[in-house]
Amino acid sequence: MTQCPDISMLRFSHSGQTAIEEINRVQKSGNMLTRVLGSSVLLKIFTGHRIQLQGSAHNIVQKDWELWAQALRAVPIFLNRRIRDVARKVLLKPLTTDEKQFWEAVADGCH
């Protein structure tokens, strides 16, 4: 991960502000996806037409936990790629030197 520049005095352009809003939306969506993935398996195991202890135990055994874990691990990877894409897109706009340095760092992995 790249060292993040100091942004305490940085004034973002309109393009930069729009990119930050997009990154915030991406992060909120990622958090929601993580919660949905995390709870969906539990809901599937313990809900149904009739809740039966034996049926729930069978459902727990039948779940593909590795696939579920892979899906959860993929969320941050997807989010990082999306954030880097947003940063690369804003780098195509006219920016001040400081703002360009900031977005280059984000595109290189600084979050």
List keywords for this structure.
4 helices, 111 residues, 72% helix, elongated, mainly alpha
Blueprint of the fold:
Blueprint: H1 14-46, H2 53-62, H3 65-90, H4 97-107
Helix pairs in contact: 1-3, 3-4
Give the SSE order as H and E letters: HHHH
**How many angstroms separate the termini?**
8 Å
Low-confidence stretches: none
Determine the structural class based on helices, strands and strand pairing. mainly alpha
Helical fraction equals over 70%
Rounded to an integer in angstroms, the radius of gyration calculated over CA atoms is 20 Å
Please provide the count of β strands. Answer: 0
Beta fraction: under 5%
How much is the average pLDDT? 82
Which of globular, elongated, flat, extended, rod-shaped describes the shape?
elongated
Largest sheet: none
Number of helices: 4
Q: Any idea how many domains?
A: 1
Structure description:
By secondary structure, the chain is mainly α. It has one domain (15-107). The protein has four helices and no strands. It has helices spanning 14-46, 53-62, 65-90, 97-107. Helix 1 (14-46) runs antiparallel to helix 3 and helix 3 (65-90) packs antiparallel against helix 4 (97-107). It is elongated. 9% of the residues are buried. The model has no long low-confidence stretch (mean pLDDT 82).
In short:
72% of the residues lie in helices and 0% in strands.
